[in-house]
Design goal:
Blueprint: E1 2-4, H1 14-17, E2 25-26, E3 29-30, E4 34-36, H2 42-50, E5 58-63, E6 71-73, E7 75-77, E8 104-106, H3 111-121, H4 135-146, E9 153-158, H5 173-188
Parallel strand pairs: 1-4, 5-9
Antiparallel strand pairs: 2-3, 6-9, 7-8
Helix pairs in contact: 2-4, 3-5
């Protein structure tokens, strides 16, 4: 599971902070975490190094600055268009994530099972077919493109937490950790525990 470092107006990224609240083991599986750079060039090398490991499940997370709910992204698009420079000062417009790659790739996470798990927790959620065209989408697309088809792979957009938006709509970080953990458990499913 990954999150992102701080970037632009996001001085404390919930997707980074939530990783510190997760257990080391989930349903008999070791939970490995990593923080990704908000850098369109460095992120590819970081992901390639991470993907050299052996995984039963890969979930990437990022923050959706203007959403007050959780979003399980259904589709990654082969397109980068930044409305905000990355941490290296780069702005990209209309470039492919993978030249000659498919225009879109679907999530490999069990959408219904995760939505049901979030319903049981009572957290606000909305389906999303658009992971944007920033680094969240780049990460999501590269994961689906590079990882073997049998590995469940997906992306979850988290809402702001109490540190990022103390005076605005937010979901407390402790609740975010419970929601992320519920998604991991749902994605592992009853038949995937070791």
């Amino acid at each position: 599971m990954t999150g992102f470092e701080a970037f632009g107006p996001v001085r404390k990224n919930p997707s980074e902070a939530v990783l510190t609240l997760l257990p080391d083991q989930v349903e008999g599986h070791t939970l490995s975490t990593a923080i990704l750079p908000v850098d369109a060039v460095r992120i590819a090398a970081k992901l390639q190094a991470l993907y050299a490991g052996d995984f039963d499940l890969v979930i990437h997370t990022g923050v959706a600055r203007e959403r007050s709910y959780f979003s399980l992204e259904e589709v990654a698009q082969n397109r980068l268009s930044f409305d905000l420079p990355d941490n290296a000062g780069r702005t990209l417009e209309g470039q492919p994530v993978v030249p000659q790659g498919p225009p879109t790739l679907p999530t490999r996470l069990p959408i219904e099972a995760i939505h049901n798990a979030w319903d049981r927790l009572g957290v606000a959620q909305q389906p999303s077919e658009d992971a944007g065209t920033y680094l969240c989408n780049q990460t999501f697309y590269l994961a689906l493109h590079w990882l073997a088809d049998h590995i469940p792979v997906g992306f979850i957009h988290l809402p702001p937490d109490e540190h990022m938006a103390p005076d605005g709509p937010h979901v407390p970080l402790a609740v975010q950790a419970k929601a992320v953990l519920a998604a991991v458990r749902a994605a592992l499913g009853p038949g995937r525990s070791s």
